[in-house]
Amino acid sequence: QVQLVESGGGLVQAGGSLRLSCTASGRTFNTYAMGWFRQALGKEREFVAAIGIRWNTGSTSYADSVKGRFTISRDVARNTVHLQMNSLKSEDSGVYYCAANTRTLALTREYDTWGQGTQVTVSS
Q1: How far apart are CA 23 and CA 5, in angstroms?
Q2: How far from each other are the two terminal CA atoms of the chain, in whole angstroms?
């Protein structure tokens, strides 16, 4: 069983930056990928970025809407995944959820473990 805790959300102006963090604890040995999803008010949850943890270690995937602006990385020693978000736009606003895939190598789907979410609000 893996537990995920997100942090780093907040309020920023358009063009600003935030760095989200997700720390995994518990039975992390069977985590194959970790990713970030977001859900804006009134919209469906959407994939943002992911990184391979085992087998495809370091492999990344990004939604087209965030390529060139967001970077996902992993701090192995701390069991933490970060999402550096630059050049933020109002459309990036939403609740950002950290997720872990403990069953498959998929980076963009099949996630089975979720954090509680952290709010990101981009003004203007």
Answers
A1: 5
A2: 40
Q: How far apart are CA 94 and CA 23, in angstroms?
A: 20
Supply 53's token pair: 């943890």
The CA–CA distances, whole Å, from 112 to 7, 16, 101, 107 equal 20, 31, 6, 12
CA-CA distances (angstroms) from residue 19 to 6, 28, 82? 11, 22, 7
Judged by DSSP in three states, 14 sits in: coil
Split the chain (124 residues) into runs of 10 and give each run's mean pLDDT: 95 98 92 96 96 91 98 92 98 98 92 97 94
CA dist 16 and 86 (Å) reads 6
> Would you say 24 and 115 are in contact if contact means Cβ atoms under 8 Å apart?
no
Q: Which DSSP category does 117 fall into? A: -
